[in-house]
Each structure stands twice: as C-alpha cells, then as structure tokens.
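As described in the Methods, two query proteins were run sequentially through the folding procedure within a single session, without resetting any intermediate state between them. The first query and its resulting structure tokens are shown here.
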Amino acid sequence: MAEERKLVSILFADVTGSTALGDALDPEDVRTLMGRYYAIAREVIPAHGGTLEKFIGDAIMAIFGLPKALGDDAERALAAALALRERVANDELLGPVFQLRIGVNTGEVIATSDPSSGEFLATGDAVNVAARLQQHTNPDEIVVGERTWKATEHAFCFEQPRMAEVKGKPRPIALYPLIGPRATRKQERPPLVGRKQDLMQLALLWERVLEEERPQLVSIMAPAGTGKSRLLEEFLDTLGTEAEYHVAVARCLPYGQQIAYFPLRGLLAQLLGAESKMTREYISSLFVAAGYQQTDAERSAEVILSTLGIEGEKSSDRESIFSAWRLLIEVLSRATPLILVFEDLHWSSNSLLDLVDSLTAMRTNTPLLLLTLSRPELLDRRPNWGGGRQNFTSLALRPLSARQTRELIRKQAAELDPEVMAQIVDRAGGNPFFALELIRGLKERGLTEKKAALNQLPDTVHSAILARMDQLQPQERAILQVAAVAGRGFTLPMLAEALSEYSLHEIAAALVELLERDIIEHTEKNAYTFQHVLFCNVAYKTLSRTQRIGLHERIAASLEAVAGERLDEQVEMIAYHYQEAIRLSRQSAVRMPLTLDVPKALRILRRAARQANQIGEVEEVNAYLQSAISIAPESELISLYEQLGDSLGFALATKEAYQKALEYWEKSKQAQGEDPDFLRTGARLLRKLIIYYERGSGNEIYGIEELPQWRERAQVLAEQAGDQDELHYLAICDGFFISVLSNLARPLPQDIEERVQRLQEACSYFEQKGDQEALNIALDALISHYVRFGSVEKAVPLAQKRLQISGLPASERADAWQMLIRSYVVQGNYSASVQALEQAFGELLPGQTPTYLVSSIRTVIEAAFERGRWDDVERWFAVIESVYLPFFSDEAYDPSLAHLVGIGSYLTALQIALLQEDQARCERYIPLLKRFGELLAEQKKVLDAELSLLLDGELPEELKELYHTHLFVTIEGMKVYNQRGEARPSRILETLSNDGRIDRKMRAHLDLNQALLERDYERANELVTQLECLGRVVFAAHMKIVLAELTGDLTRLTGVRPLLEGLQDRVFLRRLEALEAA
C-alpha cells in the first residue's frame, strides 16, 4: 500500500547567517560551499539510516523511519544531527563560515513508501513542529521535541528544557537542547521479581480449588508484553494430564467495544466441547441434569443463546444474562473442575466487563478457577477492579530481572554475541516480549554478531514490531494490515475478498511465510490469529484513514457474504465494521466519501440494534442507530428515529428521537399527501411522544403547553387513517394525562368517570386483539388512575391481571409489581405489600440480582419506616445495598441507577440512624448521599434540601425557594418544623391549596400545621390520631410528645414509650424522659 501512517523522527537543519554570507561571497563560492554542505548531508543521513527528503534553500529535511522503520529511529536522528554538526564544524571550508541550527521531532505522519511518485514523503503536524523547533534553535545548537526526548533520554544527555511560543500551537512547547550521547545508557527499572513465585501462587490456588471445591478468582495484570499469556500457558502446562479438568478461554478483541458479548461465543463453544452443541436443547439438558426444572432450564438456555444472537427474537435483560451465565458456569464446574480465562479484558466492551465482574461475585461451592488477563489500563475504567471480593487474588507481573532476561535470550538465540545480548537485556527493561521481538528483528535482518550496534536496536514495542513489518514482502504486510482491521482473528476467504489485487495462491503463500515467522498462527481450517495482539495494534496504526474506511467496508461485505443464514451470529461484527467506516469518514476535516452499499449497511445496523435491544444493551442500540442515521437518506430517517425512540426507554434521548422523527414526517407531508400509512405514522409518533411525557418524564410535563394540541392532532390523523389501534391508544394517553394533570388541580368527577370508561374500553379492545404490549400500557394507565383518585381497591385486581400477561419485558414486569405493591400500601394493607414483594423475589432466577425490583423495595421501606417496622427496613435495605454498593466501587456506573435505588432508601436509612444516634451509620450514609448529588445534577437541589432538613432542621438561604416551589420539600420541611413544636407560616402553604397531588395523608399534615399555627391543640391531637390511623405511626408518636411539651398534658402518651424503646429512637426517648421528669 503506497500511503501509510508511520511513526518517524524528522530532522530539520539550516545554516545561520546564510543571507549575510551571500552578501559577502561571490555567488559561485556560495554555491560551492552549499554543494559541499549538501554532499556531507548526503553521506551522514543515509549512514545513520535516514532518508534525505529534500533541500530547501540552505536547509535540509531528513526522515528517520522511512521507507523502512529500523526500531531506533529517534536515536538515529540524534546521532545523525550530532554527526552532521561535527562534520560541518570540522570541515576546513565550511567550519569557519557555517553554523547549523538543527531541530528534531518524533511523531506520526502520513507517508508514501514510493519516493519515485513525486509526492511528499511525509506530511503531518510532526513535520511542522520539527521545522518550528529548528527556527527556535540557537546557532550551533540541536534541540528536540518532547516525544523525541522521551524516546532517547536513556541514551542521550540534554540540558534543562525551555518553553517556546510556536506558530500554530495554542500553548508553548518544550524544547530540549541536546548535549550528546551518554557514556552509559540510563537504566530505570521497577523492583524485579521472577515468574517462579507467580507460578507457585497459581498452582497453590488451583490446589485450593480442587481441595476446597470453592471458586478462586485471579486477576493477572501487567503492561503489554510482560508475559501474562506466557505465564498462563506455563501454568496450564504444569497441570499435567492426570487430573481431570477443563479449560475455556474468551479472547477480547482489540477493536470493537460495541460488540458486547462476542468473545463469549468462543468461550461457550469450548465449554460445551463443540459449536454444534450450542443449541437450546443441549444447554437446557445440562441444567436439567443439574437438578433445575425444565422451564427454568429452557429459559436460562434461551438467555445464554440470545446473548450471542443465536436464539432469534428472544429478549433478555442484563440481570437475566448475568444470572444465566453464572448458573451455566456453576453447573459445568460442578461436573468437572473448570479453569475459565478472559484474555485481554481491558479491550472488552463495558457490557462484557460488567458480566465478568458479576462472575467474580459468585459464592457457589464449585471447583472453579477464574483467570482474567489485562493491562493496567483496565483500572482506568474500573479503579476498584476485584476490590472486596472473597477468594480474590491479584497478580501484578513485574519485569524480569537481568539474569532472567539473559536466560530467556540464551534459549531463543544461543548464537547471539554477548555484547549484543547485553544490549538487549539493557533495552528490554525486563519485558520478555520486548526481548523476544528484538531478537527476531535482528535475526530477520541477519544481525546477530557485533555489527548489530546498539543504536540499531528498537526502544519500544511499537518500533520493534514496525521494524519487523517493514522487512516483510508487500503481500505479507498487506495481509497483516487487513487482518488488523478485521480484528485479532481472520480467515482466508475474508483476505481473498479484501485483497482482490492478489491471487488466492499469493495470499496462501504469504500466510505460510507469516506462520513460519511466528507472526500469526492457525486456529482452525483457513482461520488464523495474530500470535500477539500488539502486531494487530501496530499494523492497524500503519493504515491511513482512507485505507481503514475502505477495508472496514470490504470486510463487512465479506463477513455478510460468508455468514449466509447465520447472519444473526455475525451481525454485531458486521455492524461494527460499518460503524467504524462511518466514524472514520466523519472524523476527517474534509468529509470523506463512503463507497459502501447504504441500503445494506442500514439493514445490518438496524438488525444489530434490534438484537442489542433484545438483551437490554441501550448504549449499543444508540450507537448502531446513530451510525445508521448519519448515512441514511431522508426517506429513512422517520423510521430510524422512531426505532431509536422505541429502544431508549424514558431517557431524555427518547423524547429527542421522537421529535426528530416528527420533524422529518412534517417535511415529508406535502409529498405523501393523504396516504393512510403516512397518516398512521404521524398519529403513532405523536402518541409515542405524548406517552413519553405522561408516563416517564415526571415534572417535565408541566411545561409542555403543546400536549393538548398534539393529542388533538393525533386524533385527527388516526381518524383520517382509519386506525382503530391508534384511537384506542389515545384513550390510554388521556388516562395518563388526566392522572398527571391532577398534580395541578383535581379534575371533576365526571371527567374522571369518562376517562375510566374509555380506559376500560381500551383494555377490552387490546385484550380481544391479543395485543399484550398495548394491554399492559392500558392496564398501567387504569391502575394509575384508580390509585390517584381514591379507588385503590379496584387497582389491586388490575395490577394482578397485569402480572398475568406473558412475555412482559423485565422492566415492565417490575413496574407491574411496583404498582401492585404501591396499591397495597395506599390501601393500608402493609402485610400484603410485603407478601407481594416476596413473591416478586421468588420469580428471580437463582443468583439473579434484583435490580428491577428496587422501586418496589423502596416503596416497602418507606411504608415500614412510617409504621414503625424498622426491622423490615433493615431487612430490605440490606437488599438495596447488595444491589447498589458494587456501583460505588466503580467509577463507570450508570448514574440513572442512583435515583432509582439510592436517594429514597438511603434517606430513610439515614433518618433512622439519626434518630437512633448511630454515628457510624450516619458517617457512612451521608457521603454516599452527597455523591448522589454530584451524579444527579438536575436533582441536586432537592437532595441538598432533604439533607439540610435532616441534618440541620432548616434550608440554607439559597434553597428556601423550594418551600414555595417543590411539594415534597414543603411537606418534609413542615414535618421537621412540627416535630420541633413549630409551625410553618401559612403564606408558604397557600400555593398548595389546590394541588391535585395532595392525598389524605398530606392534607392531614397541612391541617396539623394550621392547628399548631393557631395553637388549636385539641384539633392537633385529633389530626395526630388521624395520621396514626393512616399509617404514620412513628410521626404520630413524635407529635404526641411535641403536643405534651406544648400543653403539659401527658395523658395522651400511652404506648409511646414501648414503641420508641423498640425502635431505639434515642432522640425522642430523651425528650419523653425530660417530660416525665418534669
């Protein structure tokens, strides 16, 4: 390939005072001197492995690393600069009149390997910076850029850097003046530890697995090339064949994090023994044999296969996926001791990383050794990886000692000259891969004796691999580049499709050569992989953006052609290549044309999005569809944006997607006319946008003045299209709408009755049609209606009916449980709410985390707190913490979960801790709640207000506006004041008088505050009794003490002390004791 990205070092040198020299000398003399200068440059630069790119007046430009990388090009550039300066200074003609200024810079450029083409050899920012460095150099001085200094400071000495303002750079850059080569190369190594101890530790852990039959989890972490894979191989070799065990490996790809669970495909095939066994029947048989019920076994098998896109349209949520995989591994490890390996985990998708993390939380008693191999970059994404896990061991591989590195070199190249060996030991820095690659590079160039000078040795893995690649034949190099775009694994048919310029025979011959060079290895027939993934990295980096785009397009087409009927199994990988082609084309400052087949790419991206949506991978869905949107013709944008909105739940992006779809629908209106399908689409989009606001957007709905207009227009469109489904859907919209708008003013009874009738009709309509999805939403609207408007006894059977709908997504089923539990709580049937929650837990698969049930748990926790059932609070709050606390140890967790789980439950737990004066728990909960505030910007004010009320009993000045604008804060603030024996001013409560959200409990609180304000303590006592009957048992006990303090009447305190003592409510017990003492 003519054009490539290359890591090079660029040298600029010019003659100072050349203009004055031209004035002082005859032009022929100047030409003679410059000719002599150029001749010296032509000798010095090539002698050091560089290429003279051009002469520019009195300046020269040389590149080191072109046309071939030599591995130590930065050092060669500095050695050449020193030699050029010395030759000129010592020349009898040039020395007296010439002084050079030389600048050297290292960086990535776009280069051509064909100087005869007449094009520039190298272009890029690194070239411009090298020229600027030379312009800021003093006469007879050599300065280098920071990247060159970092690559060579172990071999050369420099003065202290100085900063310079450089044209085109927003900030000053550092200039490092070169002094000369070091007498001895600088050695900087961390403490050295051998591999023997690491092997012994792994062997010991394996013995514990076999003896104790309990899992051991080992994270092997080290920089690239330190020997993680080699350590694993040596460990497995030591196990022998006497003991029965099974090894399965998942290899994560270096490119394509969007491909969520792709590495699990290879893992599953190894676990089962063959790809042919990757069927629902076979996997479910394993579960049944382990004692699981047939239905549970089939369900788990479906979940596992849906993860890999094998089980058709089956959908699974994340927790089901994690649970199913944990169960499968548990079943298999019980049958045979299992060693499970995840290689290159730092390249995994976030979804796969979450799954592996869930595996590390296994608590089953089975003989399992789980090994994860990763680079330290993993800690950038998961700073607390493995922290707090039982049976967890972290092995941080350290560099080899010099003695161990020498031993490794002797085994690989006994013929190597001792001096050369010493240089490699010095340069390898204890990294075995560095050492091995340096040896191979020298052997391939035929340099094994003393002529292999020190400055010919690579100083980084990148340079070492690039130097090896530049020794290959063009077709061999092209194979590596194509394979790098494909990922770590590649096949002969794929190469043949992507490299049409070479015959099949030429490609096959090149593969044989690469196998012999130990650069690639066979995995199966006509399939290969890089022997080390760093070759894949470097090969990919050599490609220009244009080449990457073209290869991603060609590989996507090749994979689709090969996949045939098994397209679902490959669709994520194909979509990834289309995504990369699209992304790279959009990165260019000048938009680069795409040659891909747009309809085919759209079909693949949409299919991948549907598949990702089935297993709850929202980020992947969004990425696929956004890529599709970026290339789609306008005629496709309506349906693409609608699909995007359908996939994102109730996120802000959902609203934006539906609005975009509507915008493009409006633009198409004139062309489409009165086409029924087009009108139906408009009605559907308006309805979906309305339901988004009504069902999922919370308080945001109050600012949407257009909602009634949208509703009216949707009605007209649905009628014009003759779409009965949409007309009944609009009745559902009306049900949600009147329920939500009751927050502003309570609707009239006849309005409520009319909406109920229409909702009932919608439920019957969709039930008769068998439309389970629509029936679920219709029932939800009717249940919400009954709960809001005081007919909760009607809500309970409907919530139970909703739970009988088959095939509900996990999130919708959890919502159905939440509405049933909420109905019981509003009804005052606390025991039924707890029983329902326990039933919901019974539906979970063994080991499944109850993430989707946290809203239901929160409802029960709050009810238990109010009723004085603090033992239940403790029980259910432990479940909340088991779900939520793992996220606190991971910087990458989803902030949306913080609202769902943390705020309400943790505030309740803090309130109990404060009343019990449990300082330790207060000190634990308060920082966590403050962290919620940092994550949830929109709710930070409300959370700060709630914390201020609990901790300080008052709001700070900057938050006092919430007393007038936020109902919850107003009510909570009033309760805090009342429990101190104070009342809030009536003006603060005036805005609440017509608020439709005020239920019986809130109304009793408002009336109690008014009675305290008016000092009507008899009325206050009646209201306290009313609140006690409504389930506010703890608050009522507190207020009995307050009223006794205000009136001196202790006769109403019967039963208060036993309650407070049972709750260990020290704050109010102390107030009670003070009353009794007085």
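Immediately afterward, the second query was submitted; its sequence and tokens are:
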Amino acid sequence: MAPAAVAAPGPKGAASDVRAQDRDVRQLTLVTGDRVTVDGKGKPVAFRPAKGREGIPVQRVGDKDHTLVIPADAHKLIVSGKLDRRLFDITELSRPENLRAQKDGLKLIVGYRGKQAAAAKAQVRDAGGTEVGRSLKSLNAESVTTPTSDAPAIWKALTNRSAAGERVTTAAGIDRVWLDGVRRASLDKSVAQIGAPAAWKAGFTGKGVKIAVLDTGTDTTHPDLKGQVIAEKNFSAAKDTKDRVGHGTHVASIAAGTGAKSGGKFKGVAPDAKLLAGKVLDDDGYGDDSGILAGMEWAVAQGADIVNLSLGGPDTPEVDPLEAAVDKLSAEKGVLFAIAAGNEGDAAGTVGSPGSADAALTVGAVDDKDVLAEFSSRGPRIGDGAVKPDVTAPGVDTTAAIPSGSLIAREVGEKPAGYATISGTSMATPHVAGAAALLKQQHPDWKSAELKGALTASTKPGAYNPFQQGSGRIQVDRAIAQTIVAEPVSVSFGVQQWPHTDDTPVAKKVTYRNLGTSDVTLDLKATGTDPQGKPAPAGFFTLGADRITVPAGSTAEVALTADTRLGGTLDGTYSAYVVATGGGQTVRTAAAVEREVESYDVTVKHIGRDGRPAVHAESTLFRFGAESGSPFLNPQVTDGVAKIRVPKGTYVANSTVYQDPDDVTKGADWMAQPKVSVTRATTLTFDARKAKPVKVTLPDAKAKGQLFAPDYVVETAGEAVTFGWLMDSPAGLRTLHVGPQVTGVSLAQHWTGTWTTGASAEYDIAVGGKVKQLATGYDRKFTAAQLAKVKVGMGSAAPKKKGAITAFPFLATQGGGWATSVEQKLPGTRTLYLSTADKVAWGLDFDQLGPLDAEGWPTYEANYGLGDEATYKAGKTYTKTVNTGVFGPLVDKNYGIVREGDEITGALPLLADGQGNAGGMLFTSAKTVLYRNGKKLGQNGDPVTGYEPFKVPAGSADYKLTTTVKHSAKVNPLSTQVDASWTFRSKKTGFAMLPVSTVRFTPAVGTDGRVKAGKTVSVPVKVHGAAAGKNTKSLKTHVSYNGGKTWKKITVKKGKITVKNPAKGKAISFSATVTDKKGNTSSVKIYNAYFGK
C-alpha cells in the first residue's frame, strides 16, 4: 500500500486560458517533501509523494473549515507537539498570503535544545539548498527556507527514523518545528477618551520613552512623525522601509504622533515619546512569523520600553513561536507588548495570536461611547479558557496620520489631507501603547508587569464580561494616579471537572501592591456573572476579606474563591470582577472559571493483529457541534492506549493500527466507529484481529494499481466529516466497522481507484453510497459487461508532446472524488473503462503536458474539460475527441461576458478546441481593453477570463470590449493568435449575461492539426450566443493564407463556407463578424487555424 500521484476535480464550469504558473491550481510542498495540489478555493485536488516516499500511506481528514493531508510517518510528531499541525493543514497553507510567503521555498522555524543543538543546526543547514534566514535567539531557534525540491532533505535532517524506515521522533537537538506562518495587520475622538490630556497636564507626554511599532513601516516624512522615528529597519519581504499600506503610519501616529499637520487636533497619546519603526508586514499588510520575531528582538535590542503589535493570526491551543517570544522577552527584558486582540467578531474564543500570549497586554476595541465594537475579538483563550483580552481602548472611526497615496488613503480617502479615519483593534492597541509610555515616563523603573498591572487596574468598566472587555477601557489619567496595582492582572481558575456536586472550592490569591508612600485601605467586592450573562449564584465567587490594608511599598493578599458546586445545572464559563476601592483609587481584576459541561473520560484501546497492545496506532475523534476550537481531537497513544476527556456529545472515532510498527508500508488496519455517543465514561476498542482484507477484482487480473482512495462521510445536522486514505492499491489494507449499525446520522462509504491495463487503457472505478455500517473487509468484482468503454482521441499539432486524461468520479454522497492520470504520447487514444453502478457520473479532463519542473513534476501547457459530468451505460462504447482545431472563442450558457453591479467581467475561453471543449493553453501575451462611449475605460494583461473585472459607471452606455491572446507555436502551432471584440449597451444591474456572440469554424481536422493540402472543402460556420439562429442580422466571413496580411471575403451558404485547404506546411486563418438584430456586434480573427499536409 502506497500513495499515488492523484488528482481531484477543479471547480465545475471554470474556464481558463492556462498559464504554467496559474491553472486555477497551486502546488504545495509539505515538509515531508510530498506535494499537494489545491484549487482556487484551497481544496486539495492532487497528491504526489516525494521520491523514496512512495510507500508511505497518507491519511486525509476534513470538515467544512479545514482539510488535512497527513503522511503516516508525521502523525505521531504532530500529536506529540513536536511538529506544527499547520504544516499539513492544506486549507491554511493554500491561503493567498501563505502561498505568497512560501513562493521562494518551504519556510520553517526550527527550535533547538540540549547539548546536540549545534550538531542539529549544522545538519539542518546542510540539508540540500536550505538557507538560514534569521537567528532567533529568544527561542533558541532560526528561520530556514528550503527549496521545495530539497524538502525531503530537510525532513531527513529534522527527524529520526527506525531501521525499517518509519520516522517517529525529531532528530537529536531538535526541539520543535513550526511553520513560519503569516500574520496580518489587525485593521477593520479617542485620545481624550482615555484621559491623555489630563496626563499631559500632569507633565507626562512620553518623554524619554521608546515605543516600537512593528507594522507596515512608518512615513517619517509626515509632519506628525517628523523627528519622532529614531531608528527603522525592514524585516518584511518588501524592498524597503517605506509604508505603502498606511497602516503602520496610522498606528504610530496614534501612539506618538505630534499632530503638527493638524495644529495638534490629531495628536497621539504620547507625543514626546520616540519611535522605533520595524517594518515586519509587507506592502500588502502581511508578514511571516520569523520576520516579526526578528523585529521583536531588534526592538528590544534598541531599548524599546513598549512594543506595539497591531497584527495577528488565528490562535491554536499550542504555543506558537510568537506567543513564546512575547512571554520570554517580557519576563527576561521587562518589555511590555501591547497586542491587538483581533477583528474576528463577537464569537467566543476568537482572540488571535500573539495577543493570546500570557504576558501580552491584549487590546479589544470600543467606540467613542465605550460601546464594544462588533468586530472586536472575544475570549476566552483557546485551549485553557484564560481571560483575554485584558483591556479595551478606542478603535472605531479613529482619525490619524496616513501617507498620501498609500493603500488605505486610496481606499478610504484622506479627510482631511494627510489623515484617514479607520477602525480596528489595530487602532485601539496604540492607544494602550501610548498610555503605557506615559506611565513609563512617570515610573522609569517599572517593567512590563507593573505597567500592565496599572493599566488593567485603572480601567473604566463597561456593561460587558471579562471575555469581551478584559477589565475595561483604559483610563490613563487614572493610571498615572494609580499607586495600587493587582497581581496577577486577571485570575484564571482553569477547568473544574463535571460533575460539580463533589467539587472542592478553589482559591487563588490576589496580591495588591502599594507603590505609594502611604498605607491604603481597600474595600473589596466580588461580582460574578454566569454563562448567560446573569448574576452568578450567591457564594459562587467569594473573597477572604472585604477590607484589607496595603502598607506603603509593600503588598497585601486576599483569597478569591470559586465554588463551582453552585450554579445548578448551568455549566460553562463563569466570570467575575474583583473591585478594590480606597484612597481615591479603584483597582479592577478580572477572573474566570470553566465549570466544565457534562464530560467524560474516553479510553481508546488498540490491539494489533498479534493480540497485543498495538505498538504503532493512531486515533482521531471528531466532535459534532463543537462551538470553538478544533473539532478534531488527537489523543496520544501510549502502549496501545489513548485517553482523553471530552464533552458529552456525538463523535466519530477513526483509528489505524499498522501491522509492522517499524514500517508503515507493510499494511494497515483501518477501523472506525462512525457514531459514538458519549454519555458516560466510555471505552472504545479497535481490535485489528477482527479486520478483514479489502480486495478489488478487475477483468484484467494483471492491471496495475495507480490509485486507491477509500473514504467515508458522516453527517448530522448539516455538519459533515470525511476520513479517507490515498494509496496505490488496496493490498495490505484491512477494514473494520466497530459498534452497532448507525442511527441518527447519515453514513456513506466510497471506494474509488484507477488501475492501468496496457500502455493506453485504464479502469476507473467509483462505487458507494449510503450505508448503515462501514464495511468490514471489502471484496468487489467488476466484469467487462458492468463497465462503459470510452475512447478519447487526444490531439496535438506540436511534435513530441505528451498528454493525459483524468476521469473524476462524482457520487451523490461524495461530491467530487480523487482521481489520477497516466501520461502518454500525443496524438493518441486513451481507452477508459468506467464503472457505472451507483449512478456515478464522470468528468473527463485533458492535460497537454510540458517540460518537467525542478521537482520532476510535469508543467501544464493546455487543459480542456470534455463537457459536463455524465453518466455512462454499462456495456456501451463512447467516442470523444479533445485538443484538436479549430481553436477559438466559445460563448454558451456557461461562458460569456457578465455585468454585475458596477463591474463587467468575463468567463469566456478564447481557445476552446474544435469540439467546443472549454479550456485553454499556456499563453505568451494577452491584452483586454474596455471602451465606454468610445473612450478607453481600462485595460489589463489577461484574456477575458475574469481575472480582473472592469469597474464601470452605473449609467447606461455603449461599450466595446476587445481582447487578444497569443501563444507559442511550440505549445501548439494552431490558433497562435486570436483577436475578438464585442459591442453592446449596458447599465447597472444585478448579475446578467451580456448580449455577446461568437462565430465558430468547425472543419474536419486531424488530431495532428492538419488536412490534405490544396483540397477544396466545406467548413461549417455557426453563430453562438445572442446572435444565434433567427437573431442573426448579418454575418460576414473572410479567410487568409498569409497570416492575416490580406483577407478574402467568403459568403456563408447554408451554414458553410467553401475554401481551398492551404498548401503543405502552410496555414489558413479565419475571420468573422456577426451582428444581431439589436445591433450588438461580435468579431473574431483566428490566425493559423490549421495546416495543410
């Protein structure tokens, strides 16, 4: 059993003029060296193992949000926390910002440890073409970039393997391997609102304090920032420190802008502080983790007192490198990190990373009336339920400096000139950074803990709980007067296990520190809130004293107790505020405890084929209805047993036991209990001795397996999860259904695969549908009479080409399945024997292949879909042709030019083949121009395929759209240039196909693109689109024998024109113009339509 090079269907009806680097698909190289191809939506559509890894089976799991493709030898490292799960999260890796970040190779952050760290570093650096980007001393790590062709070498350097080949541990000296991920700017009457003018009046303006703004750069020429920036450095992928986005300048001016351009109206919070401008986000607002880490270390080395990070990304339960660095630098260097909570809205558990770090002063956003912003991310923190954010600050409609001509200035405008008004926790965060600078000036000896304590203690409460606002909105005028601070700034009691009748009350100490010179007596009060936002039961949160005295320069403690026995049947997160009042001061401390919902211990036992606890096994539980966090749970298996605590609910349990613990290629037992109702302590047993073999028998017993892709889908209440495998054949695979027949959920199982028979034929099998239980073993025999025969003639007018047909299966309960293809010489015929059971439909796709890339993958020169998906009848033979002339524009119900609102765009293939198969080929140049009422409105360098829509005014007008596309004769000597134009009238409307047409020439042309020279023939001519049939007002056609230098008019008679074929080695070109009865026109010129021979 081994993975195959496989593919899955792209989006239905997608037209493309194929580019080598842009075929609506992207190639992702995993850290193992294996490659996954994804479509434009991030869906995996192909997999190819790295050389030497052909025997490693690959598991695929996915739900509506994420799809993971995990080779069997990586699974244990992920579960143990040594390997970042994001390295195999195809949805995450295929996001545009990650594709852009990884364009130069696979980017990792490698952490080292122990005495062998130096040797491990050397081994990593010697792995192929690996280059070290940055040394990240705070984590004892370094960022590395490995050419994708050398990924197998870096995998070998990072891992240890057993003698038989299964990699199970990180190499000596390697601590952890992270994806060098991507973060983005957290962008979605403020200074006075937080009390800054009162602080200025008291003499605190930030003088002598350094604020590092790590962002998109800072415009040092802006009057508000002139002289403010004392150092700047670029850590991003951009070419210099210039702020072309505007985000960094806006943030910097909120923190420490002078307001010079506005006469002081838009002065920042700490106008006398100095700025360190680290550009860690590129000119699109994105930056990689290693660049941000390097910026953080640089800022600290430059003497930053406060670091502002108005950026972030999704948080996970694990500690990522940015979180680790924030905590370490805060503890060791005393630097305060003010970090945006994120703009992911009002759902629970949406605070991003690195704002999720313990030491971060995490900032949410409110408006000028202290109403929490809808976009402001909420806690609790993913994984442990801790309180985040810590505070809020103004972040709605904030006006601050902006570089003229920057991205933000263009999008929202400058009002007034040099300023822009925007919203986001990005804007809230520098208010806090500036406030911290005022405090730092007042207390030069204060470190991050004291600054964070004073700011969180002195907030103004809003009508929200701690997971929405932390302790409240900052009040720097109160903070500068604050001599009493609380430690910690928030109290997390963690999770108290269900049931709660026997809970033991949990006490935590709140320490009050008096930084003043006089004793202060504090009156204490604890106010709790239940998960529904109502008051917590009396006695749920209690204090050990209701009054304490804090000596000057010293501390006093009080116990805060959470008694989770109270609360009745209402489980969930309870929060509280402890408010201490005295000496003219108020100190607010947030607290929270997770009163665990009804939950139980689940024990998963794995038994090998020998009856002993399995040495190498893995299990995944999927939880339906998970409201936050990942629904995929991966308990670590030790001595064949995994234990995990989970909430009451419905789960899918998927398990694999490998026959040989030292070699995953020797066979596997795939077992699953598709419905597990956890209503009590539960033990699941997966006994490989009960599994049965999987076998598929074909008419040709010698057929060679290319792909076997079994899977099953469980769905309930509109939520579905898929588990499956990719391997070359079912040999060595056994399956087992565990538990009773399922009820209450929908269960479907599918078996798909491809086997070759001879040099130019293959069996493509896809069967399956709804079942009551999964198959324990599978034995399916296919006879020739049960299959449909499809003969596909594949053309090529260029010599020495290769091509491939891919048959994509579509089963009703699966959607698009995986498929594979086998290349062969062109022109040629491929015979497909397709299964017909279970109402399977097949979508056929053709690729003309180009030279191999550096990793041995073929490039794509042309791609055509052979019509819509279709069902075929058993025992019947079908004939199809693809990639033959005449190539030209196609207009039909699916393809044309579209107006929607104020945009005109197109999905109109200019190089559909002679059979009307939509698609296209690699082009060398293209140009599309739109005219409105005779004046040029815009142009782009694409054919009419929707890459870049044209923005148009709303009113009715006459339009003309012209386009041309050229390609190399080395790819295809036919239709090397196509020109087309359309005129029509249009005004603002909803989605509507515009009245465009085209003319298609369909002579009988050989699969080599040639015809008998000099022969007089009839060429069918047909109008498609708005002018078709009785709507044709006029039709004019011309031919050329000299590449379009001169044209000869030919009259259409009975839908045909009569022409003389070109001489041997020469070509004929066609031209046509059609006008419909409403006056819309369409013209086309096709150069070198076919050749004589």
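Residues 425-442 form the longest helix (18 residues). We note this only descriptively and draw no conclusion about the first query from it.
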